[in-house]
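hey all, quick one before standup. I had two proteins in the batch that finished overnight and I want to keep them in one place so we stop losing track of which output belongs to which input. First protein below, input sequence then structure tokens straight from the run.
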Amino acid sequence: MRKIVPLAVLAVLLAGCAIDDSGPVRSVWRAADAKPSYLNVVYVTDREPDATAPGGFGIDWADKASCGVAEAVIPPAALPGEKPQYGYIAKTWPHDCATAKGSLAGAVDEIKAQAKARRCNSVFLFIHGFHTGFDGAVLRAAQVGHDAQTGCAIAAFSWSSEVKLDRYIPDLEHSEYSLPFLSELLRELADSNLRVTVLAHSTGDRLVLAVLSGYAHSRFPVREGFIDQLVLAAADVGDEKNNDDFAHLLADATPYVKRTTIYASKRDGILLVSKYAHGGVPRVGQTPKADLAYQGDDKAHIVDVIDASRPPADLLDHSYFAMSYEAVADMTLALDGVPTAERLTAQDGWKPTLVCEKGGPCGSDPRYALATDRRPRLISRILLKLIPLMSIVQ
């Protein structure tokens, strides 16, 4: 009896369909003038430079960091019947990563310069996941930074993920090689006195948690609470009942974060595949009800859990955090520090972004879900049913 690899089958089944962060990127909003937005994104990557690749970096691991600024062009949401436009990197300006202050201080200096030019003092950092190219990482950072109205410097950390559905295991391996660079970047941001907000997606969640956990066990201290808001979307981290990796990592990371927001969706097809790839171990990002065990409020270190299962996004509903306007609207408030209870009602012109989950009253044990009257597309629901069959013996 031989198991087939679900991702390999999906790669064939979904050939030509963009389903993740390397896919088409555009805003979830539409400005009155319908013009695209131009945003500069500071980047740090461990990819090999490749002049033929979008944005100038390919899929190979370089074993060294490259830094610079990329100009991202983000088109507005398309109207019904209108041909959609997609984002692209217009140009890049590479610069030295290192200065006398540190190996990635050049990138942090650029972040500070952008913040100063915008008369603010914060940075929004995006860490991508599986199946994401350099251009996808930069564009997604720009899109969410714009759509969630972060309003200051925007940065992207891009590790050497391949843009191939059937290369999940190599992606996991290469993500681990990036840990020293991400650790140094976050350490230098901790010393910068900037307000730091971080959005990590999928495999990116395990990277940021691993780095923060490393600080907890290091003899070189890092300033506690240096991350103001940490958003963990679609976390590809195991939460097995008697061997809960996520619980350990979250406990280690908590001192460095003022508030953590976990978005999880039981309809996440990529994480369902990941569950089978990890021998049936459930993933945090696909278990919103189970994630309530991590929820807590000790005032200094808050952990919120949001069920994001309802609104549709990409084909396998893995990138809802950026492609669902419901998720982006709620993340806007989360990144601004608005408490979950306040997001149940209208806020300064915003409609409520959360509802009390059915079966779980918003009382002493609240269960929050994204507010929406939509549901995932039929094709997405069908694929979610098919994925378990793909791991059965041929």
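OK second protein, same deal, sequence then tokens:
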Amino acid sequence: MESLSCKHFVEFLDDYVAGGQPEEARKAFEEHINCCPPCLDFLNDYRKTIETSKKACCCGHKEVPRDKVPEGLINAILAARKAGGQSE
């Protein structure tokens, strides 16, 4: 595999972090990381974002009582879902 540009590195970052790349592609990513400090920083920040997101979403899937959620927020979410073609 030829060397990666920063653009290609970013495009396939998710697969790299998830470990879903073939060996050759993984090696190309690691070669790029070793010679491109900005992409290494980006990778580290990406991993931190994933970690932070997991922590933020670990409330045990408890439902929030409806009377604790502002009606305007509920209506906005339902309108956004409808506009996006998602079911309620």
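Flagging for whoever picks this up: The mean pLDDT is 82. The helical segments are 6-11, 13-18, 23-35, 37-56, 71-83.
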